């Protein structure tokens, strides 16, 4: 993030999406299969990145892809199918990598059901090399959003 001596950003970059889980998301017991959570995270991350004009198409157009290199999920409470959830995504690191934290809530009771994060790094499309700092095209967009 930023140096702790600097002023904190005014606007935190985050987004939320509402999802009703589908029958095909569930296992035979009627509980959402753990691998499907990543689709829910992706929807929220997509909305978050749209806010700064850096969608996956924009990333590629700027010469970078951003593969996920690490993830962690804590399944707090199982999610049944045909259930309304609210998925929040918040950008928490961006200078050297992109870390996005997620929380899934029951949309009706606001009970936390899942907590997770993903980490992505920029990789140059041209050289196929991982970047040790995030590209300026990305960090400038994040800083502009925070300071707006």
Automatic annotation (TrEMBL):
Keywords: Hydrolase. It comes from the Bacteria. Pfam families: 4HBT_2. Its EC number is 3.-.-.-. Gene3D superfamilies: Hotdog Thioesterase (3.10.129.10). One of its GO terms (molecular function) is fatty acyl-CoA hydrolase activity. InterPro entries: 4-hydroxybenzoyl-CoA_TE (IPR050563), HotDog_dom_sf (IPR029069). CDD domains: 4HBT (cd00586). SUPFAM superfamilies: Thioesterase/thiol ester dehydrase-isomerase (SSF54637). Belongs to the 4-hydroxybenzoyl-CoA thioesterase family. This is Esterase.
């Amino acid at each position: 993030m930023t140096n702790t001596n600097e002023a904190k950003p005014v606007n935190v970059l985050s987004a939320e999406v509402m999802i009703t889980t589908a029958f095909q998301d569930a296992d035979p017991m009627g509980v959402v299969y753990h691998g499907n959570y990543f689709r829910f995270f992706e929807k929220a991350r997509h909305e978050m990145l749209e806010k700064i004009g850096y969608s996956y198409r924009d990333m590629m157009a700027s010469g970078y892809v951003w593969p996920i290199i690490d993830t962690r999920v804590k399944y707090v409470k199982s999610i049944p199918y045909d259930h309304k959830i609210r998925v929040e995504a918040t950008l928490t690191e961006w200078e050297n990598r992109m870390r996005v934290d997620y929380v899934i809530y029951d949309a009706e009771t606001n009970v936390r059901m899942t907590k997770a994060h993903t980490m992505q790094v920029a990789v140059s499309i041209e050289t196929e090399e991982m970047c040790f700092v995030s590209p300026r095209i990305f960090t400038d967009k994040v800083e502009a959003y925070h300071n707006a």
